# Entry
Amino acid sequence: MKRLFFLWLAALYVLPALAQHVPDAAWVQAHYYKEEQQIRMRDGVHLFTAIYIPKDSSERHPILLTRTPYSAGPYGEPFTSILWTGYWSRYVQEGYIIVVQDVRGRWMSEGTFQDIRPFNPHKQGSDIDEASDTYDTIDWLVGHVPGNNRRVGVSGISYPGFYATMAALSKHPALKAVSPQAPVTNWFLGDDFHHNGAFFLMDCFGFYTKGFGYPHPQPISVAPVQALQLPHTDNYHTFLQIGPLKNFTALTGDSLAFWKEIMAHPNYDDWWKARDPRNFVDSLQPAVLVVGGLFDAEDCYGAWNLYKAIEQRNPAQHFNRLVMGPWYHGQWASADGTHLGHIQFDENTAAWYQEYIEVPFFNYYLKDKGTISAIAEANIFFSGENKWRQFEKWPPAAVSEKELFFQANGRLSWQLGNTGYSEYVSDPAHPVPYTDEVHYIRTRDYMTDDQRFAARRPDVLTFETGPLMEALTIAGPVTADLQVSISGSDADFVVKVIDVFPDDFRYTNTPPPNKTRDAGGPYPLGGYQMLVRGDIFRGRYRNGFEHPQAFTPNQVVQVKFTLPDVAHTFLKGHRLMIQVQSSWFPLADRNPQQFVNIYEAGEQDFVKEAVRIYHDGKNSSGIILPVLR
# Structure
């Protein structure tokens, strides 16, 4: 914690100085010029690359590269406004050469695009992958961009985070520092399109049908027009009306190749494993800074687990650091990291990260400027207490696993359950919504949403402690350990870890809740059930994601799975709640609750099912928490 104090002390002196030199559009265009290049790869394909170069020739400048499938535009003379409106302005202040490249087959680049193109460790000659494209790009940049210092860094958020990971595998000697941020890492186990084998329908369908999935036979500078038009008001109603997954496939037509590939690989086979970069992160040369959000609805899994894989597969002396803040997807790159939805964090966590973690990291490795001594192995924000903590390893050495057990009458205790079971009926025709709001686009706030709406449903079980007599801090992965029986042959299990606020809770900067007959007013935070972590598990994969197995009706079996890491403190007087349910719609697709190929199932395959969660002496269900001592 001393490091945090010294960083705070430094902020008192550094922030005012920086505030005096924030560049605007006129300053950037007066001090930079832009080049556009088609850089040739080893197989003859050319990749469009926008290069923003300082006019200053008094010193040599480092290169910061981002490779993206989302467009390196604007194309032509205009500059990208992120150089003065986003936090890249900090790199402009530092005199970086900023490079943005369209990856192969996207926008103005030639070639054929392939989603999460597998890394090829046995490349020869003109063989390519995203690592080789990065290598060839860096080689051209350091040899042709005037005034560069032959040091390159790569960063990217989300899909560009995947390309940052691929850059780390390129082994180019000029690549000194890489920052994969919310990196796409495994699209079957936890990122974006599947969680534990359950298909994340809303995100995947929306992503590909809104234009990303359409092929680009030739380079283009204007986005393709979305061909599919659906009602854009109520996603729960719209997606339920469309029906089974095969109906969504019919709507995609013939153009969305990757959607069809997903449908053809319902289980965790070699096709999926080849697309997980964690399998190849051995002997990395550049320093790595992995960044993610505790409440990232898209790639929370990727950040935690890429960091862990690099730790496991590289020597102890390799620089690999982790930063996890209280952020939605990419919020650390925004101007406001003070809150998410109704939950406040007491400071601008994004600005702090930008100034005292990321910029110093790249400055140190690319400019020999400053120090990285204040960047710990793991730099983690703990929600609830709203404090940054630093650790020498993650999960912390001072963590011990303790299990909270489900009890009769909705109680939650450190003692083994000893009575019966709790039961609900899961009906695919009336799935549990993932949020109480009515909207079309998946919200980013659901990761901290109030869960009172779900607790009121008969198909959601709740188990709750009494008011905590002292604060409880958890730091690391949470494990759901369920003893279940079902009346059908398959089921999904959604487990949520929830912080229940005291009935009189409100933030000091918010007015009291509305007590009149009129609707509206401040959101009532008294009794708020904050989602701290939730995830879904497709029950057929309880014995392995490669080999799905049907349930035997009414037979008690264990369903045990790991939720992404948590960093949260349940304050004194708060309660800890666990919710269990079997649908989370339309975030995840509906399980027919029969052991069929869900991607090909018809309406007739969807059936109601009785689900029992046991908490007797022989079969005790619970949640295993990483308690920080």
